[in-house]
Amino acid sequence: MATRTISNAGGNYNATAAWVEGIVPTSADAVVATATSGQLTVNVASAASTFTFTNYVNTLTMNAVWTVSGTGTQTFVNAMTISGSFNIALTGTGATIITNGKTIPNLSITGNKTVSDTLNIVNLTSSSSTVIWSGTQTINVSGNTTLGMIQNNSGNGITFNLTGTGTFTGFIGFKETNINTAGTITLTSSAGQPTCAIRVGPFTSASSVAFNYISGTIAGSKTLVLAGGVVSTALTSLNLNGITWTTIGFLNANSSISLHTITLVSDLNFSGDFSFAQGGNLLTQVPVIINGPGRLNGGRLILNAGLLSILFSPVYQGAPYTIKFGSPSLHTLTELSSSSLFESPNIISSQTASTTAYLSVSATQSVQNTNFTDIDATGGPIQTFRSTLTRTTAITNFTQYGGTVAFTFLN
Asked: What span, in angstroms and rounded, lies between the C-alpha atoms of 177 and 211?
């Protein structure tokens, strides 16, 4: 790798006079700045392997995309100025980012990255299918965010903060993601997943993620999808009081996961459907435990074999569902729709045997082949067909031999 040093005269990136060596950098070269280096304008699509701006006190003007593809360290410095509206595109898998306190106006990421200090970005694009962020640092985005299919943390993990006004599109797998702003975050649909605004899950090597709403105005598509990764036991913590979701979906897209725990730090409010679907192995459904001090509050809970996924094209969902409630909170639903098409029934129960969990349904119910255990439904009685009731209150079972027809009950 050759070194190309910004000359004292500076100038356009593709001009030989802008470089001490008289040679325009290529993707195999390291770009270096000195304390006396002049202003540099990326005037055409340009390339480098790495850059080091440690001593730079001048201006980098981004009038075209600058692709930096090396696997080494990319170093900014707080004393430099970055102007222009085009991306600095870091494409090298395994590259390390050091900002030294500099806010980067437009940054695009492809390939795994290590963050060595706080990363402040105005607009972030990370559109590759998988990016694993390493380190124990914080990423703050004050503008627009577009994330690819999997954004995951390794080690102790990354804290990701939305701090300004902008759009958010993407898939969250960071250790912790916070919406904490005085502005407006507009949720938009992900490419290839037109009904999904935010997908949250402990993807790849991570076992737990947290998603918190602290402050700010939330606009746009309020669709939330909770998803499992490849770890055997997945943990998702949600503290989203202040957001009422139109649609919530749970998707287990990998058969490796055996248990998914959703901890509700606050109420999880939704006006439409909270549906469960299996995107990978159709013969099994991962048991889901819902615990914490918060409660499900709002629309319709759907546990129907044969339900079409909210994420993908129509697909047969044949296996039964298991939902366990692990807190004394009263979960309030407008509707409950639960049905298993196989001989194995759906299961709705308390997480702990002989410890009561509370569930009420205020309006429509369509429930069959669903076993209830340690559930008190006094707040809104539940009527079910072809089910087994164990230590339940205010749940009535209707049995019809020789048939599997579901009845719809109106409270």
From this structure: 5
Specify the pTM.
Answer: 0.88
Q: What are phi and psi of 17, to 5 degrees?
A: -70, -15
Residue with tokens 């469960």: 276
Which tens digits make up the pLDDT trace of 157-198? 889 999 999 999 887 778 889 999 999 999 987 655 545 567
Which residue, among 339, 384, 340, 334, has the nearest Cα to 359 in the 3D structure?
334
Looking at residue 308, what DSSP letter applies? P
Provide the strand spans (E) within 81-144. 81-84, 88-90, 95-98, 103-109, 113-115, 119-126, 130-134, 138-141
- Rounded CA gap, 231 and 263, in Å? 17
Question: Helix %, strand %, coil % for the chain, to 5?
Answer: 0, 50, 45
Q: How far apart are CA 383 and CA 159, in angstroms?
A: 44
Specify the amino acid at residue 237: S
Residue 396, beta-bridge partner list: 383
> What's the rounded Cα separation, in Å, for the pair 225 and 233?
18
Euclidean distance between the first and the last CA atom of the chain, given in angstroms as a whole number: 74
- Band of pLDDT at residue 234, cut at 50, 70 and 90: confident
| Domain spans of the chain, in order of start | 1-112, 113-400
- b/e sequence 173-189, b meaning 16+ C-beta within 10 Å: bbbbbbbebeeebbbbe
Torsions phi, psi for 387 (to 5 deg): -135, 170
